[in-house]
UniProtKB/TrEMBL annotation:
Transmembrane regions listed in the UniProt entry: none
The protein's name: Nucleoside triphosphate/diphosphate phosphatase
Binding site for Mg(2+) 2: 113, 115, 128, 131
Domain DUF402: 26-164
Keyword Cell membrane: no
EC top class named in words: hydrolase
Catalytically driven reaction(s): a ribonucleoside 5'-triphosphate + H2O = a ribonucleoside 5'-diphosphate + phosphate + H(+); a ribonucleoside 5'-diphosphate + H2O = a ribonucleoside 5'-phosphate + phosphate + H(+)
Coiled coil: none
Species per Swiss-Prot/TrEMBL record: Thalassobacillus devorans
């Protein structure tokens, strides 16, 4: 997607169903979530929700999500956050990624392998460091990108500890209630 000088990235409309497309640094498609309902859409923030949506992997394999999820994307942060509502609480899966872009095909971002899994008690684990190091070598991530990504891991961990944004106690519940009005 290319924008001319002065062009603004469009924003998805609440109630609209969009695809979420994840890519790798080399431009290859990584994963597609077939259908996510937009709950809030601005040029800077997109909040969406899905439940039992089909996910297609780069090798063509498909699977279906098992629980409702609230997805948070920001145009200025190098991460996105998925809050999954399970019987024993909200689990978060946080992708270290490029900021999102949105066009007529859907919401898109580059996945940079590093993930933070956050449990209902707000403890967390950093995942896939070995995969990140491998892809950093294979795809020649510039040093400045490596620094940006690790700085954003630090920001994300700070958000978890401070219960900021999607990690605040009421965030997921409020957006899930909104999602139910679209179902």
């Amino acid at each position: 997607m290319t924008l001319g000088k002065g062009d603004l990235m469009p924003a998805p409309e609440p109630g609209q169903s969009v695809q979420i497309q994840s890519y790798k640094h080399n431009g290859k498609l990584h994963r597609i979530w077939d259908s996510t309902t937009i709950l809030k859409g601005t040029r800077n923030v997109v909040i969406g929700a899905n439940d039992r949506t089909i996910v297609t992997e780069s090798d063509g394999r498909t699977w279906m999500t098992r629980e409702p999820a609230i997805c948070y994307f920001h145009s200025k942060h190098w991460f996105n956050i998925i809050g999954m509502l399970r019987n024993d609480g909200v689990y978060y899966y946080c992708n270290i990624s490029s900021p999102f872009v949105y066009d007529e095909e859907g919401l898109k971002y580059i996945d940079y392998d590093l993930d933070v899994k956050v449990y209902p008690d707000m403890t967390f684990t950093l995942l896939d460091e070995d995969e990140y190091e491998q892809h950093k070598r294979e795809m020649n991530y510039p040093k400045v990108l490596d620094r940006i990504l690790h700085n954003n891991v630090d920001t994300l961990v700070r958000w978890v500890r401070q219960r900021k944004g999607p990690f605040s106690p009421e965030f997921i519940d409020q957006w899930y209630e909104r999602y139910l009005t679209y179902r």
